[in-house]
Amino acid sequence: MKYYFAPLEGITNHVFRRTYDKWFGGVDAYYTPFVTTRDGGIMKKKELFDIMPENNPGIKLIPQIMTTKADEFVQAATHMKELGYEEVNLNLGCPSGTVVPKGKGSGFLRHPDRLDEFLYNIYEKCPTDISIKTRIGFSDPDEFHELLNIYNKYPVKLLIIHLRTREEWYKGKVHDEVFKYAWDNYNDKNKLCYNGDIITTKDVNRIENEYSGIEHVMIGRGYLTHPGFAGNEKKKSSYEDKKTVTGFIKNLQAEYEEILFGETPVLFKLKEIWGYLFESFSDDEKLFKRIKKTKHLKEYNDIISGIEEGL
Fold this sequence. Notes:
Elements lengths: L1 E4 L8 H10 L5 E3 L3 E2 L8 H7 L9 E2 L1 E3 L3 H13 L4 E6 L19 H14 L3 E7 L8 H8 L7 E4 L13 H10 L6 E4 L5 H10 L5 E4 L1 H5 L16 H18 L3 H15 L9 H7 L3 H14 L1
């Protein structure tokens, strides 16, 4: 089984990826939060800095691109190729209200004919391999039948299926029946990747049992709530080892204090991650509330010291 870390905008940047890999490992590839294209395919400096190979040492990184313009996609992928990347990922999954009205991300799924033409052009001209991260439709899971017919036309490096529609965002149960349909009807099931609600080892085992021979899963929130729960057999660390989790979050804090200006943005980053991570400390339900109320790093650090003393 190959384990992939899903991109989460604002969280899984190069600092997070490096630190997570140091403390937990076990991830076969990290996908970057999406890069938006512009005229000439030029990225923002912040986006470029995040994907530079020297800022992601020792890990496999796959840049993700979001656009509806084939020429801009090809230009951006060419830039990625120049940086040493052999694969880029097309974002057809983002449900954001700032993205969808522009027809980007999962908004592209409303226009299958345009999507088909777009895919034809990028697969014809792109200098890199292209994987796709898609939702199963915009508003109805049945839309996936037509989408899969389109994806079947092209040499998709890996088809990552988030098993919800755009309208469902991240709520409700995933549509496992749609993955079963893809498993039975995709032209190369060895290139299918299951994504959605993989939170524990039990979830991974269920997927392996239901889809004999499946080789790829993508995990997002599960790696944040239970860091190290899958794919880390070599390091033997897990979310149950609270000392490891605390060491990770302290290391991450030190990294952010080096690159961010002032304690407010550092606290914002740490609170955002604790919003997921507190589930690893579920025996103390008040923990996250205390962290959430902190306004200064000294106050936050006192709470973390108290956690360490209790371990």
